[in-house]
Design goal:
Distance between the termini: 57 Å
Mean pLDDT: 81
Largest sheet: 4 strands, mixed
Radius of gyration: 22 Å
Length: about 130
Amino acid sequence: MKKAGTEKKKVRRSAGGSLQSGVNDTPPRKQSAEKDVYLSFAEKVRDHKGLESRWAVLQETRVEYFRGKDFVGFLKNHPEIRDILETDKNLEAEDIANTLLKKNLIVRCDRVVKTLRPGKKKLSTWPAHLEIFP
């Protein structure tokens, strides 16, 4: 025999996370005439084999990252990638990176361990653990 208060209700959640059935609180996004060129630029850069990237742990999550100086060199060596930016293709690499940071397409990080291990002469080029830069 079950008590009345011990039964669990099964609740189906929508993709938006609201508990209302069939009602979505967020309005549909406006389909702008132009696609965000920086989003397509970021996707193209991420998929390109010319920019070396590695995997690390950031806040208990595995993330793919690249070094900033490698990004600058990549943009110098592959000018055809800048053509995606259309009107902003003549910007400096630093300005492009700052725009990507503002749009939250990339996140600036720093290594967690900033001290040398015993017996080593320099820090690792590709750290395994990262933290968000303050």
